[in-house]
Amino acid sequence: AWFVGDYRPEVNQAVVEFQHLTAWSDNDALNVIWDDVPPDVFAQATATRIPTESADIDGGLEMALVQALSTAGDQRNEATLEQRVLLRVSSREPTSMDNLTDRVADFQDLLTIASGKVANIQRFHFTHADVPKLSLAGKPLGNWQEELELHMRWSNRDSDNERLSPYGMVFTLEQFGGIDGLRRWMTIANQYRSELRRILATRYNAGMFLEDRVAHCVAALESFDRTRRNSKDGDTYLVERLRFCVAHAGSPFEDLLVGES
Hints:
about 25% strand, six-stranded antiparallel beta sheet
């Protein structure tokens, strides 16, 4: 479909595959053992199903991390077990694509911070409750819904396709507080989305000049303090706003500062 003008289609769900998300989730669903197997067996590979973790977030939405298991190879020359962890953001009632896309971008920002690399979007599709997946005979296939794949030129992306391990992360999902930590992040990110986008722009835009990076960060901090304390522009000078931000961050951030503030 091609949409023009002010028309904003509505959907019920967005499902996204991110680079680094599976490693960040750091589960032990895939396992290969070579010892303690029958004499005529070289190795045993298992893929364990991981329960879906979900949380309600503001705006009447639900966020979930969903495991997808698959096999590859011709089962003669090679056989491979594959695992992917996907982000699913859903709404009980149809909502705008822009609403779900904003939440996906909030999650991409977190994953980029956690991995230290741009978390590229590798696949993105929507579903709608009134658009079921059909068989060749034209009949609905159970509760399956048609995947409405989104194709667009993402500005927040990188050419680095390296696969990271959990040990290469700044922090993992478990260290971040699991699904409850994600719920808190999505709430805060929704409140400070403008400030978050300014900060992450310095990561997504590799060609940004140093002075522009500094300006983005300072503007984000100034706006963060203004929003957090609900203060007007004329009430506080920039230096004071930065001091308020430092005090709000507390230790260990304060311990990193050297000299007079």
